[in-house]
Structure formats: structure tokens, C-alpha cells
Write a structure and sequence with these properties.
With 57 residues, this protein is an all-alpha fold. Helix content is 72%, strand content 0%. The chain has a domain of 37 residues.
């Protein structure tokens, strides 16, 4: 895959990009936050289970 290095392609992408509405930003933030919490909880559960096993961490 070859990446174009001409300025026109970058300008075209920036013209197509738009700022998200507050509702869209809020929804994305909630989903990202829930994902971070889920991964953290999963890591904590794995740590807790491994701590209960003799010879674990």
C-alpha cells in the first residue's frame, strides 16, 4: 500500500472531516469509558483469581 505524499490529498481529507456534534461526542465518550472500565475489571478479576491460586503471583 503506497501512501500519497502530495498536499492535495491531505487537503481533501481535511475538507471532508467534520467536528462531531455534542451528542455524538458524548456517546463516543461513554462507549470508550465503558470499554476502559471493562478491560480494567477483567484485569482485576484475572489478578484476583491468580492471587487465590497457590503458587500464583
Amino acid at each position: 500500500m503506497e501512501v500519497p505524499f502530495d498536499l492535495a490529498s491531505y487537503v481533501r481529507v481535511l475538507k471532508l472531516a467534520s467536528t462531531p456534534s455534542w451528542e455524538e461526542f458524548s456517546q463516543i465518550s461513554k462507549v470508550a469509558g465503558a470499554g476502559i472500565l471493562l478491560v480494567g475489571l477483567l484485569g482485576f478479576l484475572i489478578f484476583a483469581i491468580m492471587s487465590l491460586i497457590p503458587g500464583g503471583i
